[in-house]
Amino acid sequence: MAFWWPLIVLGFAFAICRFLLMLIPPNVPSIEVDSSDVVDDGNQTKDNSYIYIPRRGRAAQSDKVQCYEPATMKYLGFFPALTPLEVKERVAQSRKAQKIWAKSSFKQRRQFLRILLKYIIEHQELICEISSRDTGKTMVDASLGEIMTTCEKITWLLSEGERWLKPEYRSSGRSMLHKKSKVEFYPLGVIGAIVSWNYPFHNIFNPMLAAVFSGNGVVIKVSEHASWSGCFYFRIIQAALAAVGAPENLVDIITGFAETGEALVSSVDKLIFVGSPGVGKIMQTAAELLTPVTLELGGKDAFIVCEDVDVPHVAQIAVRASLQSSGQNCAGAERFYVHKDIYSSFVAQIVKIVKSVSAGPPLAGKYDMGAICMQEHAEKLQSLVNDALDKGAVIAGRGSFGNLVEDAVDQFFPPTVLVDVNHTMKLMQEEAFGPIIPIMRFSSDEEAISLANDSKYGLGCAVFSGSQRRAKEIASKIHCGVAAINDFASTYMCQSLPFGGVKHSGFGRFAGVEGLRACCLIKSVVEDRWWPFIKTKIPKPIQYPIAENGFEFQQLLVETLYGLNVWDRLQALIKVLKILSDQNSPASSSTTSQRRNN
User: Fold this and answer.
1) Residue 169 belongs to what H/E stretch?
2) CA quadruple 248, 250, 256, 261: dihedral positive or negative?
3) Which helix (H) or strand (E) holds 183?
4) Helices (H), ranges, 266-408
5) Which DSSP state fits 173?
6) Which residues of 113-126 are buried (b: 16+ CB within 10 A; e: fewer)?
7) Three-state secondary-structure class, residue 498
8) Contact, 166 vs 246, CB < 8 A?
9) 296 is annotated as an active-site residue
10) 192 closest CA partner among 81, 275, 291, 283
11) Which of 122, 315, 351, 486 is the most exposed place for a label (fewest CB within 10 A)?
């Protein structure tokens, strides 16, 4: 006992010291980011406060990306649509900076993350307001989808990022026991990202954080529907990089249309694409150059509710799963399957909540839901509803509109609950990306699984049951990339987990260990374990010229290493040693010499 007491005291003292060190705040400098030209102080000049009427279709594209508030149609400004030559120049500048940044320490990279985290926490309202103005989402939706997710990713990288990028030792197997095997992770170079508009802050920071922390440069093409906010968020990144002495142009934001994105694909070492399934041109360019690609292409997530749940509790989650960011959420729930025993009560609860939801300009009043970001998308949503109604569906309830600006009426769509839906309807097959809740009955777990898998998409699912075991069993049989048990989208908030789907939802993963390492050149390395005392030596029977019993030696060696029982392996080992002994004898050397002469 006397022996253990000093160890216990030392361990206790160590724990106290660690705790006290945690109480000392890290020295994180503040950064200044100019926001004077993006804050709406109510004193806009006549030149930049007019109502913008965007042109429709391909005619809308020009050499400028025009920006406006979807919720009010107020004009925000414009940004250049970069040419392919300009894109290649931006990537070249990032590549030059990356060669310097690749030598940076993890200490320097963590400080970059801490500076960003400090700024985000201190400027939540500013970040959310800019996202709200550019995409039409509410401040609460912006906080959930922009701030929390990004802060979670930063804190995960601070806690575990270095660990997963350090060399990882692996077993060497039986034939290489005298070797050390490891995997090393090196920066790829310049990562390209083409990101969607629905979460402009997080969709920029998500690939940027992984790329920069793993030693890469990154060039991000922001959506033409969220360029105004993206270019402001870029200022935050620039200021944080400058604060840690990072080289200029390590991170860059580019604006433009399809041509700009295609040029990026042909210039980078890896591409991360977040958007819609219509990416044929991008995939063709990537395939020609063998550029590795990660695709996140949206989904049609199933939300399954068994009969043994707390209906009011799950109904609240269901509405949030559908209406978050006005339904413009790649991981949002789009198909609701409810057990027939609770179908009526669940629908009644959903309708009650949805009827209390009001949609309107998010910064003009207290509204529960904001605008539809993309021009003409409300028309598409209505066409999906009309198709369902024509095929027998019924509108069970709708939310209300607030005080809408006359020129922005077409940018809003009321939250809508549909019942009596089935899989012949486009609404149950196509990604809606809007605030529509179609609810369908099921009678058995097997039927729910079959319905959930009857989709060309396979991003995620949410399964609710009073029995966690039952919910996990159902989720395990759904062909998708992420699954939440008795919750919605919790998988994305766990940033240690990879995110991505199957089928038309894409391939590859970002986030988590897998996403971080996907930004790396993964190199397998083998070295001698006891160098220089034990070195690799080719056994004499298989040295050139090959001995007559060379193949016999190989057969016995395989049996020695991989035989199914110890006795057979020992017998083979004795024969191997005998061959080696005979091979080293003078008579054997003479025979070999004679064979050479012949």
Assistant:
1) strand 168-170
2) positive
3) strand 179-187
4) 280-289, 311-323, 343-355, 377-390
5) -
6) bbbbbbbbeebbeb
7) coil
8) no
9) yes
10) 291
11) 122
Q: Which of 330, 373, 461, 480 is catalytic?
A: 330
For residues 588-598, average pLDDT: 52
- pLDDT higher than 50, residue 581: yes
Instruction: Clarify whether 122 is annotated catalytic.
Output: no
Cα separation, 311 vs 107, in Å, equals 49
H or E element that contains 580 = helix 566-583
b vs e for 544-561, b when ≥16 Cβ sit within 10 Å of the residue's Cβ? Answer: eeebebbeebeebbebbe
Phi-psi region of 77 (alpha: psi -120 to 50; beta: other; left: phi over 0): left
* CA separation for the pair 63, 363 (Å, rounded): 30
Is 42's pLDDT higher than 60?
A: no
Question: For residue 395, which phi and psi values (nearest 5 degrees)?
Answer: -80, 115
Contact 301, 502 (CB under 8 A): no
Which tokens in the block code for residue 384? 């999906």
What pLDDT, on a 0 to 100 scale, did the predictor assign at position 43?
Answer: 46
Residue type, 192: G
Q: Which token pair is 339?
A: 């057990």
The closest alpha carbon to 162, from 597, 516, 530, 443, belongs to 516
Residues 6+ apart with CB under 8 A from 28: 111, 114, 115, 118
CA distance 286 to 278: 14
Give CA–CA dist 338/440, Å, rounded.
Answer: 6
- Cα separation, 72 vs 41, in Å, equals 15
User: What percent of the chain is helix, strand and coil (3-state, nearest 5)?
Assistant: 45, 20, 35
Provide the β-strand partners of residue 301.
333
pLDDT at 47 exceeding the cut of 50? no
Residue with tokens 């790329």: 211
Rounded Cα distance, 61 and 260, in Å: 12
Alpha helix segments (H runs only) across 157-279: 162-165, 200-213, 227-243, 258-265
**Banded model confidence at residue 276, pLDDT cuts 50, 70, 90:** confident
> Is residue 44 pLDDT above 60, yes or no?
no
Catalytic residue, from 129, 146, 262, 296: name it.
296
Name the pTM for this structure: 0.91
User: What is the number of H-type helices and E-type strands within the chain?
Assistant: 21, 22
Q: How confident is the model at residue 582 (pLDDT cuts 50, 70, 90)?
A: confident
**For residue range 498-545, what is the model confidence (pLDDT) as tens digits?**
999 999 999 999 999 999 999 999 999 999 999 888 888 899 999 999
Asked if residue 49 lies in contact with residue 75, where contact means CB atoms within 8 angstroms, the answer is yes
**Which has more pLDDT, 60 or 539?**
539
Tens digit of each residue's pLDDT (9 = 90 or more) over 452-496: 999 999 999 999 999 999 999 999 999 999 999 999 989 999 999
**Residue 405 pLDDT level (bands cut at 50, 70, 90):** confident
Residues 6+ apart with CB under 8 A from 2: none
CA angle 83, 84, 86 (to 5 degrees): 65
Q: Tell me if residue 421 falls in helix, strand or coil.
A: coil
User: Residue 595 CB: number of other CB atoms within 10 A?
Assistant: 11
Do β-strands 520-528 and 179-187 pair in parallel, antiparallel, or remain unpaired? antiparallel
Distance CA 471, CA 465 (A): 5
Half-sphere exposure of 482 (CA within 13 A, CB side): 35
